[in-house]
Design a protein that fits this description.
Length: about 375
């Protein structure tokens, strides 16, 4: 009987996280790309995000050249005594009604010419009017936003019969270890798919994490099945990220594509796409896409839908185990005429500033 089936090993926990990352990186490229972060200590993992006030909105009701009430799509960016800009005109904000999203404004500020503005026109915050000798301005602050995700259990059982343990198996020195490695790969794939496609769900004893697809909601482009993936479409999504401040802290961005869309990227031309190379750190094939916003690695992930791609900042995503619940194998011993063991892990995904990521869906098939 092999050492792994020894009764002395019953109940001993054996971490298999390192083995998990050495498995097929082509099948679990997200896990290979991110690795595992520090553990969390609650089944509902909570984190907080800070953000600055927006610096612009849009006209919600057409503005005439003499109106002093400006209705905007979002009143949060604005405060009294701000100088704002609509078209070529500067306006001074004298009152803000958050409930009705209405700004009372002084038209033609600083000698600019009052002009009409259509619905959808940009309303930009320039600066606050400074007055010599004024009292300190009333402070304002933006509350941090609470975010959370749920830990999800991934488990499977390794089992071989007493006969299989006793006889030789062609080409397999240790059948139990062989079966265990297969189960590890299956569980890794389940975790990968949950991290991408999961929807946050909790019944008390059954928990499912939310994945990237459910988290990314701001920068979502839907081609509705009518348009192919083009360099312009990707660049537009990168511009959306830029407009939300995603690149201002640097970031480590990667464009994840399924195999079908990798072929589309490959047709962008040699000016945009560099020659593919193997990534020695992950064992995957990566090419680089040159855009107006920089050069970004493009990697294949066939766990995405065939009609979508995702642009993600790896610095803002972590896959984290519950404390003491990283993937581990425990040998359960002889159970009747078979030997069994269990592999269990519990994980969640943490994604910061979802507006710093993007998703393109509905790509023409």
């Amino acid at each position: 009987m092999s050492k792994i089936l020894s009764g002395a090993l019953i109940g001993k926990r054996e971490s298999v996280t390192d083995q998990l990352l050495l498995l097929n990186p082509y099948q679990t490229p997200l896990l290979s790309m991110l690795g595992f972060g520090e553990s969390v200590n609650q089944t509902e993992h909570i984190w907080y995000e800070d953000s600055m006030f927006e610096q612009e909105s849009t006209v919600a009701t057409a503005l005439t050249d003499s109106a002093t009430a400006l209705v905007v799509a979002d009143a949060e960016p604005f405060r009294v005594n701000q100088v704002i800009k609509v078209g070529e005109e500067m306006l001074l904000v004298t009152a803000v009604n958050v409930g009705t999203k209405t700004l009372t404004v002084q038209r033609g500020y600083a000698g600019t010419t009052a002009a009409a503005a259509d619905v959808g026109a940009q309303v930009e915050v320039l600066f606050v009017e400074g007055v010599e000798g004024a009292d300190a301005r009333a402070a304002r602050s933006k509350a941090r936003v609470k975010r959370s995700n749920i830990t999800q259990i991934f488990d499977d059982t390794v089992s071989i019969s007493g006969t299989a343990a006793a006889v030789s198996n062609y080409g397999i020195d240790n059948l139990y270890e062989y079966e265990k490695s297969k189960k590890l790969l299956e569980l890794a794939l389940q975790l990968e798919k949950a991290a991408i496609s999961g929807i946050k769900f909790d019944t008390g004893n059954v928990r499912q994490m939310g994945g990237l697809r459910s988290f990314i909601t701001t920068n979502v482009t839907n081609l509705s099945g009518t348009d192919d993936l083009t360099l312009d479409v990707i660049t537009d999504s990168l511009q959306d990220i830029y407009g939300k401040g995603g690149f201002k802290t640097g970031g480590q961005y990667e464009i994840m594509v399924p195999a079908k869309q990798k072929r589309a990227v490959g047709k962008f031309g040699t000016d945009a796409v560099t020659i593919e190379r193997g990534d020695s750190g992950r064992g995957t094939v990566v090419s680089y896409l040159t855009t107006d916003f920089g050069e970004f690695p493009v990697s294949i992930n066939d766990n995405l839908a065939s009609d979508e791609i995702m642009i993600v900042d790896k610095n803002r995503i972590k896959i984290r185990p519950l404390q003491g619940r990283d993937f581990a194998h425990e040998y359960l011993g002889k159970q009747g005429d078979y030997y069994a063991g269990q592999i269990v892990g519990e994980y969640t995904i943490e994604l910061h500033q979802e507006a710093a990521h993007a998703r393109i869906k509905g790509i023409k098939s």
